[in-house]
Design goal:
single chain; Aldehyde Dehydrogenase, Chain A, domain 1; 7-stranded mixed β-sheet; 6-stranded mixed β-sheet; 38% helix; alpha/beta; 15 helices; Aldehyde Dehydrogenase, Chain A, domain 2; 20% strand
Length: 490
């Protein structure tokens, strides 16, 4: 077992065994703070993907028939192991993804909470009895949908895997996870916890490789009955087409561009602190992060000043350093995208309040940046930036700002800060999003559904809906045996 400050060797997990990939291609894992190569590993091969498909197919019936209480016990043990290993996992995640250690450690504990929730919810996958005639019984039963293919991103390499493996196993479905090649250790940690907790061979599988090749291979197989993706809109549309060709059910979480409406009746300093803390968490690489800030004219300047003070206290550095409060972006692609988006905003006369720098040298660092007077058609406002830029604009009319907040193709989360119950209820009703946070920036909870509308996808993870996504319903209509003189019921 590696020490807490050692990055692990990267392997695939197929049919109950950790194995090296056998493809001709390979992957480098880079430390985003230094550009140092921390691991090199071969991709999964086509034959190994076939083995994984055979494994989930073979294990589907036995795992379906495993009593829910037994499945629950396995999930609880996996959650316990994650918590016990949190420090070691946090170091690996910080090394491969860049987030500060305290954020990585929190991610591990939240992941364990999700799995614990699924452990209990999997015991409550109730059907129902429908009242009927005395000689018949009408029932609705639940069944696992079948083998699952899941695809997860690099920004939360532990949590996004836990959100798929936990409910799938709780519902009785075996799973193949294709996790991000750039952050493999986080995904390995989750799968290792399930394996060490006693998951039977074939029930949990983990592969890394060329994304397009793996998705085509897995989704073209008749074995897979459910697809779950956390990723970009572009990838979501591609995988949706593949799934549709093979009648595969889907859950899609495809990112967001969340508006924040700040009314003038709030504690300005406290709300600014909450908004900025949430915005710059994980260097802005959070799909449900507050992203577009609409601040009432009456408190705009004080809000901006409070955010600027907060940003002045952020310590930029390697995630593994004890005093770091914001790490680098996860990869060089994000730096280039943020650079172009920032230049576009400034070209459109946005005002730079603070930050804006992109330090040279090794590492994917971008200074936390605050902009005002932003053109709402600019990239930093209209698109999902996935970086540490906080654009703030003014408003003075509630009807107008609701319209502006909804003027996006995304619909994952929205946020409202007000002391008016009437305004809170109105905005919660009228904002077009799968989740609305009122006087909070936290909309991700193990017991609450997590998902979006419009381009942000469909379906939910977490909460009862998260387990239900892996179940199908069956209507059973049962009559007494036919006999002479007995009529026919319709």
């Amino acid at each position: 077992m590696p020490a807490e400050d050692v990055y692990p060797a990267i392997e695939q997990f197929i049919d109950g065994r950790w194995v090296d990939g056998d493809a001709d291609t390979s992957e480098q894992v880079l430390d985003p703070a230094t550009a140092e190569v921390v691991a090199v590993y071969p991709h999964v091969g086509a034959g190994q993907l076939d083995h994984a498909l055979t494994a989930v197919s073979r294990s589907a019936r036995s795992w379906r028939d495993t009593p829910p209480a037994s499945r629950s016990g396995l999930l609880r043990e996996a959650a316990r192991l994650l918590r016990r290993r949190a420090d070691r996992i946090a170091f690996a995640v910080s090394r491969e993804q860049g987030k500060p250690l305290h954020e990585a450690r929190a991610e591990v504990h939240v992941s364990a909470d999700v799995i614990d929730w699924c452990a209990e919810e999997g015991r409550r996958t109730y059907g129902r009895i429908v009242p009927s005639d005395s000689d018949s019984r009408l029932m609705v039963t639940t069944e696992p949908v079948g083998p699952v293919a899941a695809f997860t991103p690099w920004n939360f390499p532990v949590l996004t895997v836990a959100r798929k493996v936990g409910p799938a196993l709780a519902a009785g479905c075996p799973i193949i996870v294709k996790a991000s090649e750039e952050t493999p250790a986080g995904a390995m940690a989750v799968v290792s916890a399930f394996a060490d907790a006693g998951a039977p061979p074939g029930v949990v599988n983990l592969v890394f490789g060329v994304p397009a090749e793996i998705s085509e291979h897995l989704l073209s197989a008749s074995v897979v009955r459910k697809l779950s993706l956390t990723g970009s809109v572009r990838v979501g549309r591609t995988l949706s087409r593949l799934a549709a060709e093979h009648d595969i059910r889907t859950t899609m979480e495809l990112g967001g561009n969340a508006p924040v409406i700040v009314e003038p009746d709030i504690d300005v300093d406290e709300v600014a602190l909450r908004c900025a803390t949430s915005k710059f968490r994980n260097a802005g690489q959070v799909c449900n992060s507050p992203s577009r800030f609409f601040v009432h004219e009456a408190v705009h300047d004080r809000f901006v000043a409070a955010v600027e003070r907060f940003v002045g206290d952020i310590r930029l550095g390697a995630g593994t350093a004890a005093d770091t409060t914001m790490g680098p972006l996860a990869n060089a692609r994000r730096v280039e995208y943020v650079r172009k988006a920032l230049a576009d905003a400034l070209d459109r006369d946005a005002q730079l309040v603070c930050g804006g720098g992109i330090p040279g040298g090794a590492g994917n660092f971008v200074e936390p940046t605050v902009l005002t007077e932003v053109d709402e058609s600019s990239t930093v406002f209209a698109e999902e930036i996935f970086g540490p830029i906080m654009p703030i604009v003014r408003y003075d009319d509630l009807d107008d700002v609701i319209t502006r907040a909804n003027a996006t193709t995304y619909g994952l989360a929205s946020f409202v800060f007000t002391e008016s119950l009437a305004k809170a209820h109105r905005m919660a009703r009228e904002l077009e999003a799968g989740m609305v946070g009122v006087n909070t920036t936290v909309v991700s909870r193990a017991e609450m559904p997590f998902g979006g509308i419009k381009a942000s996808g469909h379906g939910f993870e977490s909460g009862p809906e998260g387990v239900d996504a892996y179940l199908r319903r069956k209507a059973v209509l049962e009559h007494d045996p036919a006999s002479p003189g007995r009529g026919v019921s319709h």
